[in-house]
Design a protein that fits this description.
Strand content: 5-15%
CATH architecture of the largest domain: 3-Layer(aba) Sandwich
Low-confidence stretches: none
Helix content: 40-55%
Distance between the termini: 24 Å
CATH superfamily of the largest domain: Translation initiation factor eif-2b, domain 2
CATH topology of the largest domain: Rossmann fold
Largest sheet: 6 strands, mixed
Number of strands: 9
Oligomer: single chain
């Protein structure tokens, strides 16, 4: 199967889940880099067109193109996503905070695993029964976060009753300003995702741990490569 067909196959399968298949995508892009590096720009753009609201799809594409399409750089970026410490840091922040119950509407796989592995913390479905609401960002920029519409509604309900809301910004979710603006321009509305009002957020958890959300959103780890700015898909 040609790598571009493989990419399409991976994208179709991914539609049924919410986790970015970084290793599978990296394998396809590495094959392309070895066989036909001139097609990488087109392939990264096609990946983004499949899933324009996915921060990791933009992040990996930016890292691949910034690395000049070198195979080692592609695998390095994918391995970074796989080695994301954010889940462990979320758990490490919850325990000393004395939280007993957490509501995590529309959680990512990382958030689900992190909460499941914590002793003494119960996951609730309703805000009324929870001490804290945890929202998984699907993409983020310097001053805003994209999340599931139901999670956003529950965050608003939590803040309305004075309960704290933490936003989890996993590695690869956060984009620099120019890429974030490109993402927003491609996200349809209304839809399953929406921008979370930052006034509803108490704190953020990123790959450096718990802190003010503004601090978490200030440290993207990919660059705004020119190949992903302003193209018409």
């Amino acid at each position: 199967m040609h790598p571009l067909e493989q990419l399409r196959y991976v994208a179709r399968n991914w539609e049924s889940g919410d986790e970015f298949p970084a290793q599978e995508v990296a394998a396809v892009l590495a094959d392309l880099a070895a066989q036909s590096p001139v097609t990488l720009v087109h392939s990264c753009r096609r990946l983004i067109e499949y899933f324009p609201s996915s921060g990791p799809a933009w992040w990996l594409s930016a890292r691949v193109l910034a690395g000049g399409g070198v195979v080692d750089a592609i695998w390095e970026a994918a391995d970074e996503l796989a080695a994301d410490p954010t889940g462990g840091l979320l758990g490490g922040a919850l325990v000393p905070a004395g939280v007993g119950t957490v509501a995590a509407p529309q959680p990512s796989g990382l958030v689900s695993v992190a909460l499941r592995d914590l002793d003494g913390i119960r996951v609730e479905k309703k805000v009324a029964n929870a001490d804290l609401v945890v929202v998984a960002a699907r993409a983020a920029g310097p001053s805003a976060v994209l999340a599931g519409a139901r999670a956003i509604a529950m965050a608003a309900a939590a803040r309305g009753t004075g309960k704290p809301v933490w936003v989890v910004v996993e590695r690869g979710v956060l984009l620099p300003g120019p890429l974030w603006e490109q993402l927003l321009a491609r996200v349809g509305a209304p839809g399953p995702l929406a921008v979370l009002p930052l006034g509803d957020v108490s704190a953020g958890v990123g790959e450096r741990g718990l802190g003010a959300l503004s601090e978490v959103l200030a440290a993207p780890t990919c660059s705004p490569v020119a190949e992903l700015l302003g193209w018409k898909g």
